[in-house]
Write a structure and sequence with these properties.
Elements (H helix, E strand, L loop, with lengths): L1 H106 L12 E4 L2 E4 L17 H8 L1
Antiparallel strand pairs: 1-2
Helix pairs in contact: 1-2
Length: about 160
């Protein structure tokens, strides 16, 4: 009977050890399951963040394309403005020339200013196109050769 009781005690002890091992495994399994659930939650958060970032990238790419289009438009407008500025400068030159010519005609009614041309210079005693003269500043540097033009621009 003692032997039987000893065997039962050993068996209970073994069962107890097995139960403890089983409970330990269950705790480890529970901990692993909690970690998996935590990682799944993190993964879901990262997926949502990734989707948000993809949306932002799409918006930024769209904005970039719009800005590039706007840059092209502004470059075109700049070129038009530069041409307009050049034309405006020429228009102002012509307006000033005509104004000076009218004043000279008023002050010197006996002199004819019909041969005056705002785009010509005096070179070697003749009115020539500016691009035909290689002298810097245009025309001769002889004051008598372009006195008539000076009189017109003074007035």
């Amino acid at each position: 009977m003692q032997l039987k009781a000893k065997r039962e005690a050993e068996q209970k002890k073994e069962e107890s050890v097995e139960v403890e091992k089983s409970m330990e495994r269950e705790k480890k399994l529970q901990l692993a399951m909690e970690q998996i659930a935590k990682k799944d939650k993190e993964l879901l958060g990262l997926k949502n963040e990734n989707a948000d970032l993809k949306g932002k990238v799409h918006t930024l790419e769209k904005n970039k394309a719009e800005l590039e289009t706007r840059i092209v438009e502004l470059c075109g407008q700049k070129k038009v403005a530069e041409v307009s500025k050049e034309d405006h400068g020429y228009d102002m030159l012509l307006a000033g020339f005509e104004r000076a010519k009218k004043q000279a005609e008023f002050l010197f009614p006996d002199v004819s200013f019909d041969k005056l041309d705002p785009i010509k210079v005096v070179h070697n005693g003749a009115l020539v196109d500016d691009d035909e003269v290689d002298v810097e500043g245009g025309g001769d540097h002889d004051p008598d050769s372009y006195m008539c033009l000076v009189v017109v621009f003074i007035f």
